[in-house]
Amino acid sequence: MLSSTARDEGAKAAGDDAPLLGRVARGDGAALKALYERHAARVMAVALRVLGARNEAEEIVQECFVEVWRRAREFDPRRGGAAAWITTMARNRAIDRLRKRGSSARTIDAAAGEPVAAPRSPLEDVEARLERERIGAAMVQLPEEQRRSIELAFFEGRTHQEIAELTGTPLGTIKTRVRLGMEKLAALLRGSRT
Amino acid sequence: MTCAEFKELAAAYALGALTPEERAAADAHLAGAEPNEHAGCFEALAEASETANALALSLAPVKPRADLWKAIEAETAAAGGAAEPAPRRARGSILPWLLAAAMVLIVVWLGFSRSDLTSELAIARRDATKLADERAQCTQLLDALRDENKLRDQAVAMMQAPTGRVVAMTPTPDAPSSLRATAIYDVKDQRGMLIVAGLDKPADKDFELWVIKGNEKRAAGLLRAAPGQSLVMAIDPKKLADGELLAVTLEPAGGGEIPRGKAVLTVPLPKT
For the packed helices A4-25 and A82-101, what is the interaxial angle rounded to 10 degrees? Predict the structure, then answer.
């Protein structure tokens, strides 16, 4: 399974973020701001990828950090790192909004696009860019159908069942694709770090 | 749901690919036993969550609008103590501790002579002064960072404008190997910004920017940054007006109005 890579990254992030979340839970606004400065651009990227509209994505960023403020005490490090917790919160809110828009706005083609074809920003921190490129390189090594299933789930909020219907593939096959794809992605990330 | 079944679904759980019913069953499984009674369920979920987070990290970060934080701050301030404080201990259990603490304080107080107290006070005053100095330094640093962020936002906005052009400055053979600079120039407004990295220089020198038009060489400011830091600066629009070329030279410390040192970077300003 994923283990060392994710754990290393998780430990690194948790090492910085978990104490900040603890302070947020005690009502420390400066700690929330520190988390915002660290993660807002990433949260915005996820919301924008899901919703495709900048103004809506910014609303999600706002809602997400207000939710972090309200629910910091519920953070459970056994379930993953703080960054993953915040990302999931933003992703779930964006998916909820996408669902409210109705199915017409959700197209399978949108998720089939390249996930890593975002423009480079010269101002992006070099380390973050290298990390993004490393993950992008791992993503493109996944078998196409596994990558597509994972993206349909994460960026479009599709369930196993919905992905099976959309792609005309048996449900059991989709479940296997998602599980194997995630395991392979974890292994690729682990491999690319060494 | 068994632990083995949960672990089969952990990846889908982290990706949000479960139906509400499956998710409820998974949550019930996690809540249904003590963590040490699970056969690796939390570990599998933590690992899957970090992999799902990698999907987010594969996206290029996108800065939200600059004033969004203020909106969040206002909302959280209005929510007050939404992040609930830790539950208070029952008064009955804390009172004996308070009494004990008070007794200790009285004993300590009696143990101090007046001179001890005076020296303690002097130390406390000195510490307070030191803290105030550190606070002032911190405020200065934060102000500088705020200014720098404002400049970065300006640079990004200029790059994204339809008339914004981005050009890398070309190093001359005399340039230090680490020196890199990119100019952002709005061809319509004739405004420009410069991003420079690797400003390593001898102590008795300074990098200086010039806007050149024909034989006219306009001094446009010294390029200074803390060691290892990059510099983002807005170029004076008056200096830029109708300029044809940007150049950076290495000048004696403090620079001057006429270039005397060797050029290290150059780039023509785009016209269209």
Answer: 80
- Out of B14, B72, B195, name the one closest to residue A36 (CB): B72
List alpha helices for chain B, DSSP H.
3-15, 20-31, 41-57, 68-79, 91-111, 114-160, 237-240
Interface of A with B in 20-39 (CB under 8 A): 24-27, 29, 32-33, 36
Helix, strand, coil percent values for chain B (each to nearest 5): 45, 20, 30
Contacts of A32 in chain B (CB under 8 A): 72, 76
How far apart, in whole angstroms, are the C-alpha atoms of residue A44 and residue A42? 5
Backbone angles phi, psi at B179, to 5 degrees: -75, 125
Distance of CA B188 to the CA centre of its chain: 31
- pLDDT tens-digit profile, chain B (272 residues): 888 889 999 999 999 989 888 889 998 888 877 666 777 888 999 999 999 999 998 888 888 998 999 999 988 887 665 444 444 444 445 666 666 776 666 655 555 555 566 666 777 777 777 677 777 767 766 777 777 777 888 888 888 888 888 888 988 888 888 888 889 999 888 899 998 888 888 878 889 999 999 888 999 999 988 777 788 889 998 999 889 999 999 998 888 888 888 899 999 998 88
Which two tokens mark A94? 């964006």
> What three-state secondary structure class fits B221?
strand
Crossing angle of helices A160-167 and A144-156, in 10° steps, is 130
Helices (H) and strands (E) in chain A, counts: 9, 0
- Asked whether the beta carbons of residue A62 and residue B51 sit closer than 8 angstroms, the reply is no
- Would you tell me how many other CB atoms lie within 10 Å of the CB of residue B248? 27
Domain definitions of chain A by residue range: 1-102, 107-194
CATH topology of domain A107-194: Arc Repressor Mutant, subunit A (1.10.10)
How far apart CA A48 and CA B62 sit, in angstroms, is 8
In this structure, CATH architecture of domain A1-102: Orthogonal Bundle (1.10)
